[in-house]
Model the fold of this input.
Amino acid sequence: MYEYNWPKRHPDVPGQSPEEVWTATLAALPLGASVTGEVIARQPFGIFIRVDGVPNAMALAEIIAIPEEMGLPVLGTRIRGEVIDHVERNHQVRVRLHRSGRRLSGARASVRRMTSGVLPCPECRQPLKSGGLVLSKCKDDGQRTCRSLWRCASGHVWWGWADQPDEPLEICPVPELFR
Done:
């Protein structure tokens, strides 16, 4: 069997447009919601998940949102996680997986997040929206690593080391990276 595969396209929901299905998915899976599901596809960058109770949702757990000791789960594995983002352009729900079925702990979950599960802007406290990842060189050792990119409705752009989620966000010196 080939190690990587793509998920099959979602079946159309009779009588509903893709936008209506997406609206229902957003209502069923708000930011911070706990989810369980089954791995339905694998790629080197992460896994696709069929979410229990929301069969039309397309969920993705990227490799940086999977605890290192878990490795990349195989097809059919049951997982537990938390909704961390919604991606409008491809109607995807982003999920961070939990270790051994428990909720992840640490400063990011308890200090840096609002009660709704949304990361607040350090400047104005408005919710931040994820802008993806940027490959960057670490000042300390010169190694390449990813920075997560964030922006609030006021236009403040921040970034942080993706492999150091407990570190505070920094003002992004190149805000044009956020598209």
